[in-house]
Amino acid sequence: MRKAEETFLPEPERYEFRAMPMHQFALGRRDFFKIFGAGIAVFAVAKEVSAMQETAPGPHGFHNEELPEEIGAWLHIGEDGTVTGFAGKAEIGQNVRTSLAQTIADELGVAVASVRMVLADTALTPFDAGTFGSKTIATITPQLRRVAAAARDLLLEKAAREWNVPADRLVAGDGKVSDPATGKSLRYAQLAREAIGARKPPAEDPIKPASEWIVAGTPVPKVDAREFVTGGHRYSTDLRPEGMLYGKILRPPSFNATLISCDDSAAKAMKDVVLVRDGDFTGAAAPTVAAAEAALRSLQVKWKELPQISDQEIFSYLKKNAQPSKEARFRQAKGSVDGGLAEAAHKLDASYTVAYIAHAPLEPRAAVAQWTDGKLTVWMGTQRPFAVRDDLADIFHVSEKNVRVIVPDTGSAYGGKHTSDAGLEAARLAKAAGGRPVKLVWTREEEFTWAYFRPAGVIEVKSGIAADGKLTAWEFHNYHSGMSGIETPYVVANQVTEYHQVPLVLRSGSYRGLAATANHFARETHMDSLAGRASMDPLEFRLKNLAEPRMRAVLETGAKAFGWPRQKSAEGQGFGVAAGYEKGSYVATFAEILVDRKNNSVTVKKLLEVFECGAIVNPDGLRNQVVGAMIQGLGGALFESIQFENGRISNAHFASYRVPRFKDVPEIEAILLDRKDIPSAGAGETPIMAIAPAIGNAFSDATKIRLTKLPLRPELHLQG
Amino acid sequence: MATGIELEINGKGYLVNYPPDTPLLYVLRDELGLTGTKYGCGEGMCGACTVLIGGTARRSCQIPLGAALSKPITTIEGLEKNGVLDPVQQAFLDAGAFQCAYCTSGMIMSSVSLLEANPHPTTAQIVQSLQGNICRCGTYTRIIKAVQRAAETLKGRSK
Question: Which residue of A295, A684, B3, B91 has the fewest CB atoms within a 10 Å radius of its CB?
Answer without folding.
Answer: B3
